[in-house]
């Protein structure tokens, strides 16, 4: 099939507002928008300013009344607990209405924030949709974050209520959520009115009388209750998702209702090439943007069946789990992070598990969240014999910036490139002064404003931070903070971040945030955290600490305590396990730590002595410490 991409992209370019009005027609509105875009709204304008809608209605009610009541909305498959459950659109709507009723009895209404801190269970999605139904704004916090990260999010969002669970389950250990939740509420200066806790049989927890309520009891008490969808403006917030910024204070990415639905709905058929009724699986977590967009909202908006998978690509129980899920639930398209495939390949390099399952209905693998290395793509293509499609996006955009659109007909693949920009995105590469660079030249990747529907209109309660972080450096453009180039065929190549964000197993983390935690240790005088290459996780953090050893403590003890500190303050997901005591940190004469040079040394890459270095001998000291730890190039 010849690709329609060029024609569709051009139809957007020649008439952006007409293009997005056409996409809005796929959504149900209480009041249909007559205007596609208002440039005077918010920081850079807003989509469908006069539209009134409800996202939960579009995810559930309209499918129930439109003939999909008995279709599975969601299949929960949890190899880690040995359980499975299929929930039809009809039953999902009933549970969401019951839970929305319970939330509204607790005083949650339009515009109120609700923090959701839950593992990968259907009730988490019920909670998200119940908030959407009431016009409340959810903020989901990933279960691998520690109490203080949760506290920051409770405080910043001023959450009225928290929905949580008694535990999450990781291979070989139960993660008790309640102590983390209680500690977070204690740390937060803002206190929620109530918490609702899903008791899981693997580990029940005590509830505090008068503050904590049992999820199942509330749903049972409200069974059969009808709760109407609250009309919200298209531009009202649907959710806030906190993501790593350059400091320990995360950024609250705001998502609106109308533009988000129009963009995600379009992406399901144009980008992923699925038809309503088919089974779509995003093997991610609802704590990340991929989970928000492609486990919850997009598949349900589009009338697909979504898979809620509670497990890991390997070890639950083996490297064949993904193929079992695809075959058992007839998954048409799988979307995950490259790291999951690197993990599977390491366990099963010959793909011996693949042949055990019938994958005849499976059509494509989409990868995102981190750079998809060509080696992994080649392996997946060879093993699965389906197109393997890299696509590039960010928490901020909520959907693909650049990709190879399967639904429009695939373009030729260039390994190492996520292909071409999607309609809505005018992607350019500029130098530090903001001037466009020639094809093939590395520079800052920027997107001409306005951003398309679905992208963040602002940061939660931080409009100035939004302007400063994203719009100030290149006026008229959104700064992606990714560096890369566009080749002569308009294919984009994403090479690196321009800030201190690192990508660990597809999880976005801030080295600045880790440095804040490390420097909290009383014996640490100075520190630097960098991301170093890792053949499985893409990157892992490495900390260099200068310690005050006047109190005679051993270096090993301090290193161990620093590892624990980051685990306790940021969470296990930081995978912060490498800490090295060094005598001094390499700096420029003006005192700036030479993190980029340290990273090149650690990764075994070519590096040049920075002209402004204060004392070149320090780099030799760093090399020696790294060599002693065996970190001299890509580690295993
Ligand atoms: N709750 C509590 N702890 C969690 C957690 C959660 N939801 N998710 C991860 N963790 C913990 C892990 O148990 C691990 O703890 P440990 O240090 O005690 O071993 C730590 O955080 C690091 O986790 P992770 O980075 O996931 O590494 P892993 O070795 O457990 O698993 C992979 C490696 C590749 C299997 C795993 O990272 C994976 O499945 N990645 C898919 C990527 C993904 O979903 N990305 C989202 C964007 S698309
Ligand atoms: P997150 O906000 O967690 O989705 O992380 C976004 C960042 O991950 C981007 O800015 C990129 O640095 C990186 N990223 C995501 N997808 C890709 C991709 N397909 N190729 C290269 N980098 C990617």
TrEMBL record:
Belongs to the ATP-dependent AMP-binding enzyme family. The keyword Mitochondrion does not apply. It comes from Hoeflea alexandrii. Residues 5-59 form the Acetyl-coenzyme A synthetase N-terminal domain. The lineage of its organism: Bacteria, Pseudomonadati, Pseudomonadota, Alphaproteobacteria, Hyphomicrobiales. Keywords: Metal-binding. CDD domains: PrpE. Residues 67-448 form the AMP-dependent synthetase/ligase domain. This is AMP-binding protein. It comes from the Bacteria. Residues 514-592 form the AMP-binding enzyme C-terminal domain.
């Amino acid at each position: 099939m010849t690709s329609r991409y060029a024609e569709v992209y051009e139809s957007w370019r020649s008439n952006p507002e007409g293009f997005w009005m056409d996409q809005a027609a796929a959504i149900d509105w209480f009041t249909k928008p007559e205007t596609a875009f208002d440039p005077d709204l918010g920081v850079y304008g807003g989509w469908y300013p006069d539209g009134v809608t409800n996202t939960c209605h579009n995810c559930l009610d309209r499918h129930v009344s439109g003939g999909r009541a008995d279709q599975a909305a969601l299949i929960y498959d949890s190899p880690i607990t040995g359980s499975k459950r299929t929930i039809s659109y009809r039953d999902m709507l009933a549970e969401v209405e019951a839970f929305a009723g319970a939330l509204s009895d607790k005083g949650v209404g339009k515009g109120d924030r609700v923090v959701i801190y839950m593992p990968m269970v259907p009730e988490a999605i019920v909670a998200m949709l119940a908030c959407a139904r009431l016009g409340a704004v959810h903020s989901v916090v990933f279960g691998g974050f520690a109490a203080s990260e949760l506290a920051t999010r409770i405080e910043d969002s001023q959450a009225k209520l928290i929905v949580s669970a008694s535990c999450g389950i990781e291979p070989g250990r139960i993660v008790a959520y309640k102590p983390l939740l209680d500690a977070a509420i204690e740390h937060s200066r803002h206190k929620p009115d109530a918490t609702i806790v899903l008791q899981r049989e693997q580990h029940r927890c005590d509830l505090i009388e008068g503050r904590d309520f049992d999820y199942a009891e509330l749903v049972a008490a409200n069974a059969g209750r009808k709760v109407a969808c609250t009309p919200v403006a298209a531009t009202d917030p649907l959710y806030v998702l906190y993501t790593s910024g350059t400091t320990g204070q995360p950024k609250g990415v705001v998502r609106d209702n109308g533009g988000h639905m129009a963009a995600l709905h379009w992406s399901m058929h144009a980008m992923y090439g699925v038809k309503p009724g088919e089974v779509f699986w995003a093997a991610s977590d609802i704590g990340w943007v991929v989970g928000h967009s492609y486990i919850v909202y997009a598949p349900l908006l589009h009338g697909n069946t979504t898979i809620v998978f509670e497990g890991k690509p390997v070890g639950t129980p083996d490297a064949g789990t993904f193929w079992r899920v695809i075959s058992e639930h007839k998954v048409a398209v799988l979307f995950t992070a490259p790291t999951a495939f690197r993990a599977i390949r390491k366990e099963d390099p010959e793909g011996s598990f693949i042949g055990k399952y019938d994958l005849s209905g499976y059509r494509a693998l989409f990868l995102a969240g981190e750079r998809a290395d060509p080696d992994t793509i080649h392996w997946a293509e060879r093993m699965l014999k389906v197109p393997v499609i890299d696509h590039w996006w960010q928490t901020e955009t909520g959907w693909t910036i650049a990709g190879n659109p399967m639904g429009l007909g695939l373009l030729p693949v260039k390994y190492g490139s996520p292909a071409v920009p999607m309609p809505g995105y005018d992607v350019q590469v500029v130098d530090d002064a903001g001037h466009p660079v020639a094809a093939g030249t590395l520079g800052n990747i920027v997107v001409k404003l306005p951003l398309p529907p679905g992208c963040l209109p602002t940061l939660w309660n931080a409009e100035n931070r939004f302007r400063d972080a994203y719009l100030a450096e290149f006026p008229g453009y959104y700064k992606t903070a990714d560096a890369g180039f566009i080749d002569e065929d308009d294919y984009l190549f994403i090479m690196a971040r321009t800030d201190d964000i690192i990508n660990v197993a597809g999880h976005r983390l801030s080295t600045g945030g880790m440095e804040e935690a490390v420097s909290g240790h009383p014996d640490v005088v100075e520190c630097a955290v960098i991301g170093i290459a890792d053949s499985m996780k893409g990157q892992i953090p490495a900390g260099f600490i200068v310690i005050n050893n006047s109190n005679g403590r051993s270096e090993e003890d301090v290193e161990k305590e620093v590892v624990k500190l980051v685990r306790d303050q940021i969470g296990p997901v930081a995978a912060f396990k490498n800490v090295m005591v060094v005598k001094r940190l390499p700096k420029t004469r003006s005192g700036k730590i030479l993190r980029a040079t340290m990273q090149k040394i650690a990764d075994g890459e070519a590096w040049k002595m920075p002209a402004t270095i204060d004392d070149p001998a320090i780099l030799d000291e760093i090399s020696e410490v790294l060599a002693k730890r065996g970190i001299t190039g890509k580690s295993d």
